[in-house]
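Weekly sync notes, structure subgroup
Attendees: PM, AL, DS (notes)

Item 1: joint prediction request from the bench team. They want all two components modeled as one assembly rather than separately. Inputs as received:
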Amino acid sequence: MQGASSGIGYGLKYQARCISDVKADTDHTTFLAGTLSLKEENEVHLIRLSSSGTELFCEGLFSHPNEIWDLVSCPFDQRIFSTVYSNGETYGAAIWQIPELYGELNSPQLEKITSLDGHAGKIKCILWWPSGRHDKLISIDEENLYLWSLDASKKTAQIQSQDSAGMPHKISGGAWDPHDVNSVAATFESSLQLWDVRAMGKTISIECSHVRSVDYHPKRKHVLVTAEHESGIHIWDLRKPKVPIQELPGHTHWTWIVKCNPEYDGVILSAGTDSTVNLWLVSLGNDDVSTESQTESPTHWVDPLINTYSDYEDSIYGLTWSSREPWIFASLSYDGRVVVESVKPFISKK
Amino acid sequence: MGSDGDGDAPLLDDKAKRMRDLLSSFYAPNPSMLSHSPTASSKHSTPDDINSSSFDPNHYMNILVNNSNLEGLLKRHVDMAAEIKNLDTDLQMLVYENYNKFISATDTIKRMKSNILGMEGNMEYLLEKIMSVQSRSDSVNTSLFEKREHIEKLHRTCNLLRKVQFIYDLPDRLGKCIKSEAYADAVRFYTGAMPIFKAYGDSSFHDCKRASDEAIAIIVKNLQEKLFSDSEPIQVRAEAALLLKQLDFPVDNLKTKLLERLEHSLRDIQLKPEEIKNASPSAREVAILEFVEAIHAFRVIFPDSETQLVKIAKGLITRDFVITEEYVTTRICAADLLGVLRVIWNESLLMDEVLQDSALSDHFLEGAKAAVKLYVESAFSQLLLDISDCLLKILKRDETEEYSLETALDASTKLALQGGRNLLLDVCKILDDDSGIIDKLREPIIDWVQEGLQDFFRQLEDQFQSFSGKNNSSATQIHGLTEAAAFAGLVLVLAQLSAFIEQTAIPKINEELAVSFSAGPYEYGPAFVPGEISRKFRSAGDKFLQQYINIRTQRISLLQKKRFATPKWVKHKEPREVHMFVDLFLQELKVIVNEVKQVLPQDMRKHRRSNASSASSKSNSFREEKLLHRSNTQRARSQLLETHLAKLFKQKVEIFTKVEHTQESVVMTIVKLSLKSLQEFVRLQTFNRSGFQQIQLDMQFLRTPLREIVEDEAAMDFLLDEVIVAATERCLDPIPLESPILDKLIQAKLAKSLEENTSSS
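Output from the run, pasted for the record:
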């Protein structure tokens, strides 16, 4: 598996962990990336892929007060995004807006819409309402879940409901079910826990150890993918939570993040601390929930690993598909290098 | 039919047709019908047809003259003249013949007339004579009739009397016969008298019948005794059986009784395979001989009992084989099996001699086939069981009982190779046996062995997989710590055992196989495919090794996690000593090194190490220098740039290389993974100066003991540096410890651990 000569690179100034696809931007393939530097002034980069698809350029550069541990672009407004940040001791979360005339300003400042105060522990991530324009947000820290109601025009956010994990282990991350907006999954050290947002109560729990990342299958209900530190990638069917429906070997070291492709069924991307991005193709064809009547081909005997992108110098923590051009993904390694790759050559084969 | 007739008509020649026409015209009731008959069709009834009745010569002539030329007419004339002459001759001949016949008839009549005269007189004379003869004979007959009647009556009475006399004498006679043991005569007499007894036994000869019945009862009893006594000669017994049969005695009952006795006697002839080893002619052999004798006798006595005897004999052999099969499953060697088979074979031969059409040898063959097959199968399964037991001991080991991995590995490899070879040798012994017992079994045996080997290795691999699958990733949570450790050991042993089987056992066994079991046509099952099995074990071995590494790194990772999750790193106090976690980490590594050393082979390519170390020292000094420099300058920006630059210039250390089945490779991989995890954990934290210094101190301390363990020092140093770099990056105030303090602390720790070592040992 050769390194990615096809990859388009872009360098952030500092180390970085998070990159997000700007879903609301339907005209361009755009990503937002935030840096992680304890001592320097951190930045948020608005990175755009040129229309020819051969170049990445910086569309906007904004300074951010603290190092960014999580960054998610708002799904319905391309100018809004959320960050989780830390000054080294305390954590905070905020919703930001990119100023309108940022191109003309010299050093544009981000407009803070509101900060999500109330967290005590380490904030892990912020989840936006998975589909369409909605005012609901969820923020997750190590022990609690908060459901927020955001009013962008009034620049306020209010806690609607809250629930604590009540577990000995700490929450490490989460995902909002795109098929059932009442369901949120949170990852623990030893399990995956689902919440019902309406009642803020726990529902299903799946036993699995060291879950680091979770992603719902965008097309199939009940299917979600988890990445675990040591035991690779597991694909689950929530109706059968005892055993995973499929296992993938993952990475040589920790598997850090896993992302399902928004368009192509069974195409999964994972990144890990072994400085590689792996592209998987799994066959989930025998699932009765499948909307398209694809015929089951005996592909599940072939190696599910289609390609390994190994042209990275450091651990990769940030990974996202582009929702506008679903064959493109952006990866962000710790040394601050954004690499955009196209998986077209591997998908068109199928 | 009609079409046939039409077809025939023109074939008839003219003459025959004419004759027929003439005849029909003669017999026809009236000539007018003729015109309608099929023969006189329209073409014949024309006046120009010479054969028709309506022939008109003039008309014919006219036509002829009109139609023919002169030449034709002349020809026709000649033809006709010849025809007329022919007809004339025919007519003359007929007349002449008829005349001849008439003359001869006249002559015959004349002769008959003269002969018939004078015959009447002779006939009358003859009649007279016959009449007189008849009257004479009648008179003689009447005169002698009375006397003849009388004589006949007397004769009948005399016969009757004699019979009566015989019957009255019968009891005495029978008694005499009993005394002289002339049972055959007695039976003959008795059966002779039987009809009379049947008719009059209830009335006139009542006493007599009773007496003779009593005598016969004695005879029957004696005969039965004779029949049942083994000491009597066979002929006598056979005779007795025959006589009993003649006496309408239910011989079949006797037969079944005898058969039962025979079967009963068989029950004592239990095959005791354990005794066969003591080569002395056992009681059983004698018993078998007796049994054969008995069968022989029985066959003579009851010639019609062959099928039953065959059944019994087969039953004996079947039972023998049942016992043999039981015996086979209790770990026997080939010689034992052969011994047993030989015994049964001899037995069947003996019986075969007595029972001609018994097909006992076929029966034996079938039994032997099953037994040998079972033997081969059970041998393999036994071996499988042995290996499994040997491996499972690792899990069951107690704290007290020292069952080291090394022993387990030794034992199991020995079992896998030596056991496999011994098995083959054993089976070879069977093949080499020349007593002719297994002649027909040779090919199947070869196939069984091939199949057995294939199955054996497949099952072994399955077994391994199931062992390793027993506890999966959650092992550390479900089981106690010691058990989890034991499990890791098991997986490691499995890995090495798989590698051993793939690299050593399979080729060796395959060699052996090729020598003694060159495969015939594979009728009985799949052959042994070493390539496939090797592949399987290779992948299994890699998998187990990976699993071992995973288990071990998971445990270390757990340690690290605890280490980094507990303290508040931002508010860390100044480092006073090397943290205890380092001890735990090293201890864990020590366990691993210990396990790995017991199980895995050393890397033969030692020279690699020296190269690596020289490279490492260089890069090491470079890095330390850089580190120092970096800590002095506080500009993180240039720091990062520097790191990148350094990475560019330094050869990229391959952290994640393929694991090999060597001590060094496995230890190195585990160390690398652990250090990498350490780096990742550090990156998730934020440190104050003291926290950073603690990390620095811990890492610095780790350097020396790790260097003793790992093979690739460069990679190890690089990773340790990486951890420190990560800590620097995540530190709010990254001022490293002064090297004298660092040294002091490390020395203190070393002294302390040395002290602990000496005090504990």
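Discussion: Residues 1-11, 31-44, 471-479, 606-637 of chain B have pLDDT under 50 and may be disordered.
Action: AL to compare against the crosslinking data before next sync.
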